[in-house]
Request: fold
Amino acid sequence: MTRLSICIATIDDRIEHLRLPEQQQPDSIEWIVIHQITDTTDYSAFYATHPHVQFHTMQGKGLSRSRNAALQLATGEWIYLCDDDITLSAELLSILESAAAHWPDAAILTFQLRTPGGAFFKNYPQAPMLHHQRSIGGVSSGEIILRKKAVDQGAVRFDERFGLGANFISGEEYLMLRHAMREGIPIAFYPAAIGTHPENSTGTNFTPALVQSKGAIIATTYGHACWMLNFLYAIRKHPVYRHQLGFFAFLKYIYSGSRAYFNGR
Reply:
């Protein structure tokens, strides 16, 4: 039977809202929570109420730091880096086994999520497909389940400069998948929903911090070609962000993100 490590990164009192098992889980499932703590609250009583979950504390912030720690701690054949606001499908294991049978050579699988109302969380392909350089840009962390062997081979690691709590607040999933793809790791999509996720998403809210992250991602992906590509990206995305930021403000923030990346900040 497939052995799955479900790894959740959370911070401070968000841990109290996690949907964790209250009783012994099957041997096929391992639960790991990386709890980042930035305050002086004692959470030991909460840990004690969930004896079947492994809790690991970490001081400070950084979602990618937490995920890298989870990757090293997980012992399952497969690892699911579950967001702390996802409700898992009761069919998660059987869906994973079906996907693994369909894509026996894939070391990273991506799936669907639904909203609490039952709609798809985003527009997904309707059939299984192998990912390519462009398609991985639309993958969210809560949709990814990966083989532990890809971690052990060094093909999977998050850039800790990216992600919530880091210098650049987004882009860590794409950069991880891009690195894995360049290492020759097959990445495949399987059309089945493995959980539900709240409808709100920072990916469609073009705040200055998010736009700066886009500039950093384009810089790390394309090098100094980013100076032209940033401008083209600003034009292409204008219909999406025009009610949140003006065109020239968008340019200001995206170029500042690229400069910050090259300056090592």
In short: DSSP finds nine helices and nine strands in the chain.
